[in-house]
């Protein structure tokens, strides 16, 4: 061979968009193509980006195979470089064309490292051996597959061992990943919703603060909350006669029952009235003053949750609250979604009153920036701090072995950083 390596630059057109957005399928296809071409795999790293696109590389003993996909165009760009003459890169080209269901592909081959222009040097191989290599000098194979949620300014990446659930529902893409750091992770349209390892922060904070400051809540309504965590926490309180949960997407419920059972543990509770329907419609049809607590456990203001971020909807929530009723919502990250965060509090105060709406914070590692806010809006005399019984809270948290909420956290959550207080003043 007159050169050190062969380099093929590849383009695949009219591929399956679903395949090009499936990081596990891409990983297996790339690794399979490398092995069938005669290569020895050392390492593979793949990232799935939100909402779509996959980047990855398979490092082989003979060099590498790299890829980036554009599912929205059905297009993939692949780079195959092999050293020596033991690997046939054209075998990999043909395999990937079939795996991606490409309508057609194009490629150009370059010979790299003309031997006539090179002079081989002597050096001590043992002194330069990688510490991760075996004693014989053979490389140790490793694997990295990543889910990445990102926008143009920020990203969160989580290493995972594959996808456990992948369904396009009538409303959104529902997926569950088996992550190494946070256990099973639920995403909707590529956005992180909850994980086994940090879900308790969100669910404890959105439920126990209103319940423990209401005079005597008997009936609660949860809009959204298909993972079941909010219902689970509400039903720790014996005083409730009924918790009504209205989730629009039955696939979210199905995914969490199968793969996040610790979160979805209350679906069989006899006090839970689970309704698969449009939460906006349910609220509109509900009777005046029919709920003591309303929790809007929604996703971000896109897709099926978009209608939950309107003045009309919150006026309806106000109407169905009892005289001492409390509405609690997740109200976005002050850092990440500042515009929506400000607008939410303007809307709530225009409906409930300037002094009836309070912001509190919690810290959730898998949410953008980690800092997450909740709103507490009181229709009557209920107040998150004035009506707070620290001893009752302490006893409740201890009895149920809560992991985040306690009497100190309850009070501290309302002590806002200056920049947050100024945003909603």
TrEMBL record:
Swiss-Prot/TrEMBL cofactor(s): pyruvate
Site (Cleavage (non-hydrolytic)): 62-63
Assembly notes: Heterotetramer of two alpha and two beta chains arranged as a dimer of alpha/beta heterodimers. Homodimer or homotetramer.
Entry keyword set: Autocatalytic cleavage, Decarboxylase, Lyase, Polyamine biosynthesis, Pyruvate, S-adenosyl-L-methionine, Schiff base, Spermidine biosynthesis, Transferase, Zymogen
Location of the active site: 63 (schiff-base intermediate with substrate), 68 (proton acceptor), 83 (proton donor), 297 (proton acceptor)
Family, per entry: Belongs to the spermidine/spermine synthase family.
Protein name listed in UniProt: S-adenosylmethionine decarboxylase proenzyme
Binding-site positions, spermidine: 203, 227, 297-300
Record-annotated PABS domain positions: 144-379
PROSITE patterns the record matches: PABS_1, PABS_2
């Amino acid at each position: 061979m007159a050169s050190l390596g062969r380099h093929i630059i590849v383009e695949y057109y009219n591929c399956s968009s679903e395949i090009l957005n499936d990081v596990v399928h891409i990983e297996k296809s790339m690794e399979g193509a490398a092995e069938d071409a005669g290569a020895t795999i050392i390492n593979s790293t793949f990232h799935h980006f939100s909402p779509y696109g996959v980047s990855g590389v398979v490092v082989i003993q003979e060099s590498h195979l790299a890829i980036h996909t554009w599912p929205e165009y059905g297009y993939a760009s692949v780079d195959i470089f092999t050293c020596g003459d033991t690997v046939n890169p054209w075998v990999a080209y043909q395999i990937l064309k079939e795996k991606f269901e490409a309508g057609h592909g194009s490629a150009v081959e370059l010979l790299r490292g003309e031997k006539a222009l090179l002079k081989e040097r002597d050096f001590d191989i043992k002194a330069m051996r990688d510490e991760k290599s075996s004693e014989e000098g053979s490389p140790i194979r490793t694997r990295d597959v990543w889910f990445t949620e990102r926008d143009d300014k920020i990203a969160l990446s989580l290493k995972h061992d594959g996808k456990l659930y992948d369904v396009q529902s009538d409303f959104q893409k529902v997926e569950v990943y088996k992550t190494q750091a946070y256990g099973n992770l639920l995403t909707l349209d590529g956005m992180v919703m909850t994980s086994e390892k940090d879900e308790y922060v969100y669910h404890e904070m959105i439920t126990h603060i209103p319940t423990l400051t209401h005079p005597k809540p008997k009936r609660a309504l949860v809009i959204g909350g298909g993972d079941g965590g909010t219902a689970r926490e509400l039903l720790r309180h014996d005083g409730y006669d009924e918790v009504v949960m209205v989730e629009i997407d039955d696939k979210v419920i199905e995914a969490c029952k199968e793969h996040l059972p610790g979160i979805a543990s209350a679906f069989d509770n006899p006090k839970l009235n689970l309704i698969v329907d449009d939460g906006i419609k349910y609220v509109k049809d509900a009777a005046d003053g029919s709920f003591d607590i309303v929790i809007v456990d929604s996703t971000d203001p896109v897709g099926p949750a978009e209608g939950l971020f309107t003045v009309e909807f919150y006026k309806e929530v106000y109407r169905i609250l009892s005289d001492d009723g409390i509405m609690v919502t997740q109200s976005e990250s002050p850092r990440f979604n500042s515009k929506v965060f400000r607008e939410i509090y303007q809307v709530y105060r225009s409906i409930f009153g300037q002094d009836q709406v309070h912001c509190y914070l919690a810290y959730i590692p898998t949410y953008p920036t980690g800092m997450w806010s909740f709103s507490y809006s009181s229709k009557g005399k209920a107040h998150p701090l004035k009506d707070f019984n620290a001893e009752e809270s302490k006893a409740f948290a201890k009895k149920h072995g809560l992991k985040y909420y306690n009497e100190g956290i309850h009070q501290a959550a309302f002590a806002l950083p200056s920049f947050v207080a100024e945003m909603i003043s």
